[in-house]
Amino acid sequence: MFRKVLIANRGEIALRAIRACRELGIKTVAVYSEADRDSLHVQMADEAICIGPPEPSKSYLDIPRIMSAVEISSADAVYPGYGFLAENPKFAEIVAKSRVKFIGPSPSTLDLIGDKIRTKEIAKKVGIPLVPGSNGAMSLETALRTASKIGYPVVLKASAGGGGRGIRIVMNEKDMREKFPVAVQEADLCFGDGRIYLEKFIINPKHIEFQVLADSKGKVVVLGERECSIQRRHQKLIEEAPSLSVSEKKRQEISEKVGDLCRSIGYEGAGTVEFLMDEDGNFYFMEMNGRIQVEHPVTEMVTCVDIVKWQILIAAGEELTIEPETPRGWAVEMRINAEDPNTFMPSPGKIDRLVLPGGAWVRLDTHIYQGYRIPPHYDSLIAKLVVWGSTREEAIKRSLRALDEFVVEGEGLKTNIDFHKRVLSTLEFKEGRHHIGFVEKLMV
Ligand code: MV4
Hints:
Layout: E1 4-7, H1 11-23, E2 27-33, H2 40-44, E3 47-52, H3 63-73, E4 77-79, H4 89-97, E5 101-102, H5 107-113, H6 116-125, E6 133-134, H7 140-150, E7 154-162, E8 165-170, H8 173-191, E9 196-200, E10 206-214, E11 220-232, E12 235-241, H9 248-264, E13 269-277, E14 283-289, H10 296-303, H11 307-315, E15 330-337, E16 353-355, E17 362-366, E18 381-389, H12 392-405, E19 407-409, H13 417-425, H14 427-430, H15 438-443
Parallel strand pairs: 1-2, 1-4, 2-3, 4-5
Antiparallel strand pairs: 6-9, 7-8, 7-9, 10-11, 10-13, 11-12, 12-15, 13-14, 15-18, 16-19, 17-18
């Protein structure tokens, strides 16, 4: 087992990883920027090393600075969390070359799943349903031909994009002639890879993703799905597990194929396979993510599996001893952001008054405390409120109760707590009729 893990991240996920290490008897090293001096992860870790100024590019994204901290602390593993360097194949490779274990997929796997075209080809081979479209080196002529065959609207996506970056909707042939060259140029500029692909545009889909754990011996366990349709501009706001739209039969069918995909690429670690589900209940593969995700706790709550602990154990060479199970009850996660509820713009500041929700079946993953000053340099997530209920209805009622208890106040500081109360009170959400356009519709 590892002796000491360096956590190359901040905020709530750094705390999540420190806690998992502590339960496993592993020492922890925090790294922090000058803006995070007073952050909880610095206090909670066994050691802490300042790695630079507030700007992410000079601290949490700076590979040489992180590697110096690894060296100084003589950590034997690195936990990347989400965002920052989590899915950077170069970082994973540099860590490995330093004879330190990167807690995540191999550099070559990260490289592969970063290439959406290649990943879709493999997904197709194992029988995962894809959106009608075209892949590979595509010319304007091919794009026009494919689009007229499958029908507009279509989307153009950058092969090296993902998570909503590098996507364009194309309405007709004229639109295609205009947007195709711009999409190629932008993909080349933004990602250093001008390859793009085309898909039929799915109208009013739900975002449904499957959680996977895979060990180094080839055992793969699919932990069911999460639904993450409540989002705005690709920032998820509410996630739940399981999904109302997924039957046990469908869950088993997709889980099997997701398992096949992971086995066929020799996947190792925690991962997520993302789908869109159309209004007729058809699933379409989108992409695979090779990191722990913000919303992993809802899966933990309905499966009783400690996903972060297993990431560490798998990286240490342990074999999975869990089996897939039908999800038990229902879990909802609300991302509490320090942001203006109307404009969704970040609204950082000092927390003068804080009352945290609690009670049975309420989990709060957060790095904030009374007196904490939320730095303006990072994303605005300040807490994840995760609530379990024996039914979806109970989970929603308990979520509203917990939101009512939650007080975060400070000068100029705003949060989206009331936004969450509003969403959870709508009939559309209660009946599960929402899709990815829900928030935009709610805000007009
Ligand atoms: C789509 C789509 C409609 N049709 N692909 C955006 C994130 C990326 N992972 C996939 N995305 C989309 N791909 C086709 N063929 C609509 C989206 C999309 C979306 C997907 C999931 C959650 C939120 C979204 C918001 C806007 C667009």
